[in-house]
TrEMBL record:
The lineage of its organism: Bacteria, Bacillati, Actinomycetota, Actinomycetes, Streptosporangiales. It comes from the Bacteria. Coiled coil: none annotated. This is Iron ABC transporter permease. The chain crosses the membrane at residues 53-70, 82-103, 109-128, 140-160, 188-210, 231-254, 274-293, 305-322. It is found in: Cell membrane. PANTHER family: FE(3+) DICITRATE TRANSPORT SYSTEM PERMEASE PROTEIN FECC-RELATED, FERRIC ENTEROBACTIN TRANSPORT SYSTEM PERMEASE PROTEIN. The keyword Transcription regulation does not apply. Belongs to the binding-protein-dependent transport system permease family. FecCD subfamily. One of its GO terms (cellular component) is plasma membrane. InterPro entries: ABC_BtuC-like, ABC_transptr_permease_BtuC. Keywords: Cell membrane, Membrane, Transmembrane, Transmembrane helix, Transport.
Amino acid sequence: MASLAAVLLVLCLLSIALGARGVPLDQVLRALSGHADSRLVENIVWTVRVPRTALGLAAGAALGLAGALMQALTRNPLADPGVLGVSAGAAFAIVFSVAVLGLGSLYGYVWFAFAGALAAGVLVFFLGRLGRSGLTPVKLALAGIAVTSLLTSLTSAVVLTNPDALNRYRFWNAGSLADQTGATVLRVLPFVAAGALLALACAPALNSLALGDDVAASLGRRLGLVRLQGVAAVTLLTGATVSVIGPVVFLGLVIPHAARVLAQRAGVGPDHRWLLPLSALLAPCLLLAADIVGRVVVRPVEIQAGVLIAFIGGPFFIAMVRRRRLAEV
């Protein structure tokens, strides 16, 4: 974890220094300390790149935690935060607010996106708990798939008939940290912090759930309460993130597996008290690295971080799945 924190610090400095206009590290450090060489450097650092980097840190940590939590709740190694329908809810809310309400700015529809994400998460939870057996991993996953399919169909119906909604949806759906301000980061942080606290508080109970519902119940765990807390955490973390930067494919899916491999090599095993913090450190490393590469590889044009993560994450995930060690994790 100390090594990951050091890598993350280096990536933060590179994220502030690199872009369409390169800023030397010594000037970055002087600007961060309030002694910038010029007003232009100060504006680049504090107005553009510091908020972008801070959003990458918050969004990466949120999606990493949400992915690890979702896989633990469903006991499914292929689960990701999108299983709860949160991303689909945010997408439908965006196209609805643009097509029906005529909103055109990020600050206008971002709150609708967050509300749509929360509503989708709540709907999946209540559908999953119907029936005698209550909320189970299988029912939770099935309810999420059903709600996601429904919302995706409604979103497609709207964007096919409204060009403005299609343009907004296309940009949001790519997944990007660009064009964000400090005000946006401050709006997202309370929800991410609340979700992170809920997620970390679930860690001991998740270790019990991994042994099966019967064993967890015999150990005194209240399964319904644990799953409610977990769903609330995933909804807050994913909803706050995707409403601003869009759905970043593979981040919440791949990172928990990488965290398990690191935890196994460190000798702590599949202990969620370590897996969750490791995921929260690994995910922003990957997100910031993808964002940095996207800024410099075809300068001055940018490639969205979500596109690069999908490009890198696909082969990486296939390689991890093929390894025998992953099956043992």
